[in-house]
Structures are given as structure tokens and as C-alpha cells.
Specification:
This protein has 251 residues and is mostly helical. 55% of the residues lie in helices and 5% in strands. The protein has helices at residues 2-12, 20-38, 42-45, 73-90, 101-114, 131-141, 157-172, 190-202, 211-227, 234-248, and strands at 54-55, 68-69, 145-147, 178-180, 249-250. The protein has a three-stranded parallel beta sheet, with helices on both faces. A two-stranded antiparallel sheet has the order 1-2. Helix 5 (101-114) crosses helix 6, helix 7 (157-172) crosses helix 10 (234-248) and helix 9 crosses helix 10 (234-248). It is globular, with a radius of gyration of 21 Å.
Length: 251
């Protein structure tokens, strides 16, 4: 029970800390609370590890993914290596990565966030530290579609809006879970961030759809809303589409 409590503290608080100084502050504080309230030392609960590792991908191809504690960290590394081999076998851009425990820990954190409804992450780090690669692998492990824009010299507002339409169509009409991988180098215009903020807050981008595109959204979603016994007016049908986008998009 104490190990589970420690994991929840790590999941809720430690996952959000962005530098070593804050993480070094976290461990003594939790250790103090364990001693104060549970009369147990860190080593009694955790052993020689820095923290406890939980994930839901230790059994590949499982019908029901169980979120459980990893008892054997060496096995976890091997399992992630198998996922990486599988990714490289089907990808046009294979990743030559060396898996180790810290990388598996990062993947487990990304995985548990994107597996939650409206789970979004901001990954901080220097270039080449593996943020994109581990996100790609975590999306593959979760069996989600990964979506990323391709910025060229001529990439502008029109191309950006077209890409957003493609992503929202996958999520809202095709009901596919999409991981949108967006890097700071792809912010060609500040308006891109405004659109991202709108998707995070409301699940939609104002004035994005043309009249014929809106008609297609309404006609596609209408029978789905009818099956669920929802209202058939245009606003209710469109809100159904937006809720799908909110549920299926992870940024």
C-alpha cells in the first residue's frame, strides 16, 4: 500500500518536475513523510531504486492492459526493446536507440499520460535528448496514430490549417486516437500556438471549417448521434464531433 502511495505521489507531483534540483527536493520530502506517518524508511519501501516503476505495456498484445508495478526492471528494458524492434520493422524511419532504465522510465510516463482522456504533455530538454523518439515509441506501444507536420520553406497558415483539418478529421470522424507531436522548431507563426491552445481548451479551432466541410462533419456524425439518442440539431451534432476530438487527441 505504501509503495502504491509513493507511486501516486510520483505520478501526480514528480512527473511534473522539470529539472534535477526539483526532483532532488522531492525525494527527501517523501522520505520524511514516510518516516513521519508510516514509520518506514525509503530503503524499506523502495530498496536501492530511485523510485517505483508502473506501466501497462509489460504484456504485449494483451486484450486488457493492466497498469501494474514492474517487478523486474531488466525485463522491462527487454520488453521495450521488443516494441522498438517492432516499430522499426514497420516504420519508414527506423530509430536506432539504446534502451536503458531511465529511457524506459520516460516512456512509462509518456505512456500513462497519453493513455488518459485529454492527456497532454510538455517535454522539456536539450536537442537530441530523445523527446521525439521516445514519444514516437510510446505512441506505437499504445497503438495510437502519430501525427506530425512537415515544415518546408513555403509552409504557412494555409498549410497549417490543412494539417489541423487532417488531424481533427482522424480524431473526430474516423474515431482514431492521435498523438500530435509538435516541436518548438515547428512554430513558424505565433498563431500556431493560439490554435494549439484552442484545441487544448475547447477541442476546436474557430473558423476552421468551410461550409462544405462542415456539412460533411454533420452528415457523418448525425447517424452516430442518433444511435446514442442525442439531439439532432446542428449544434448538438457538432459538439459531438468536438467531444470526440477532445477525447482522441493527445498533444
Amino acid at each position: 500500500l505504501i509503495r502504491l502511495w509513493l507511486h501516486e505521489c510520483s505520478r501526480v507531483f514528480r512527473d511534473r518536475l522539470v529539472d534535477d534540483a526539483d526532483r532532488e527536493w522531492f525525494r527527501p520530502l517523501v522520505s520524511e513523510k514516510m518516516t513521519q506517518h508510516f514509520k518506514m524508511a525509503w530503503s524499506d519501501v523502495v530498496g536501492t531504486q530511485d523510485h517505483i516503476l508502473f506501466c501497462d505495456f509489460m504484456v504485449p498484445n494483451a486484450d486488457v492492459r493492466r497498469y501494474i508495478e514492474v517487478q523486474d526492471t531488466n525485463k522491462a528494458v527487454k520488453v521495450v526493446e521488443e516494441y522498438l524492434d517492432d516499430y522499426n520493422a514497420i516504420s519508414n524511419t527506423p530509430m536506432k536507440l539504446v534502451m536503458f532504465l531511465d529511457a524506459v522510465d520516460h516512456i512509462s510516463r509518456i505512456s500513462r499520460v497519453i493513455r488518459q482522456p485529454q492527456g497532454h504533455m510538455l517535454l522539456l530538454g536539450v536537442g537530441g535528448s530523445g523527446r521525439q523518439s521516445l514519444t514516437r515509441l510510446a505512441a506505437h506501444i499504445a497503438e495510437y496514430k502519430l501525427f506530425q507536420i512537415e515544415v518546408t520553406k513555403s509552409y504557412g497558415q494555409n498549410e497549417w490549417r490543412d494539417d489541423l483539418k487532417k488531424m481533427l478529421t482522424k480524431a473526430g470522424l474516423d474515431n482514431q486516437v492521435v498523438v500530435f507531436l509538435f516541436t518548438d522548431t515547428q512554430i513558424v507563426k505565433e498563431s500556431f500556438l493560439e490554435d494549439i491552445n484552442n484545441i487544448l481548451n475547447t477541442g476546436e479551432v474557430p473558423a476552421l471549417w468551410a461550409a462544405d466541410e462542415m456539412d460533411n462533419i454533420l452528415s457523418t456524425c448525425r447517424p452516430l448521434v442518433q444511435q446514442e439518442g442525442g439531439k439532432q440539431d446542428k449544434n448538438s451534432i457538432y459538439r459531438y464531433f468536438v467531444r470526440r476530438c477532445q477525447r482522441n487527441i493527445h498533444i
